[in-house]
Amino acid sequence: MKTEEIIWGTVTLIIAYLAWRTIAPLLSAIFFAAILAYAVLPLHKRLGKRTDNKKSALILTILLIGLSSLVTVELVLIIKNLIVSFYEDIMTFIYWSLTLELPFGIHDVLQKLYFQLTPKLAEYVQSYAFSIPKYLLQLIIFLAMFYAFLVNSDEIKKQIYPNTWRARGFRRKALKEG
């Protein structure tokens, strides 16, 4: 019996650890989606008077998708140009320095630097290229949570308000008086 509990406890801890490792990179996207949803909540309420709650949330999410698409495209273009320029400048400097008549040993050091730097720069460029899918996943989670927070804002408010200190103070005061 004791061994079985230890095994199940270990399995539970492993599953909890793996779940945490999976969800942890997305927590910042969820957190900022909640903050932005709270920030645009007055606008959402005004739009909700003209249309229903889901359409209002959808309109704001579509506007956010347009804005985030523009920012994403701009970032990709800036990063691409920056990396290409950086790589070309480094390679130009190394080619130029290899043509110089330098004292003994320095030419060999520059050649070794060139042969070591080229793979490192390629690795650096690849790390930026591979970070784009992670960014897009976080963006999708952000947009989905933003929409969900707006659609369910009334239910979230009903769940949060009774647990605030202010609401507890009013309840205590009402109980003392009544």
The helical percent reads over 70%
Distance between the termini: 53 Å
Radius of gyration: 28 Å
Number of strands: 0
Number of domains: 1
Query: Could you give the order of the helices and strands?
Result: HHHHHH
Query: What best-fitting shape do the alpha-carbon axes yield?
Result: elongated
The percentage of residues in β strands lies in: under 5%
Determine the structural class based on helices, strands and strand pairing: mainly alpha
Give the uncertain stretches in residue-range form. Answer: none
Question: Kindly state the mean pLDDT as a whole number?
Answer: 83
The number of helices is: 6
Major sheet: none
Organism: Thermococcus sibiricus
Protein name: Putative permease
Keywords: Membrane, Transmembrane, Transmembrane helix
Transmembrane segments: 6-36, 57-79, 135-152
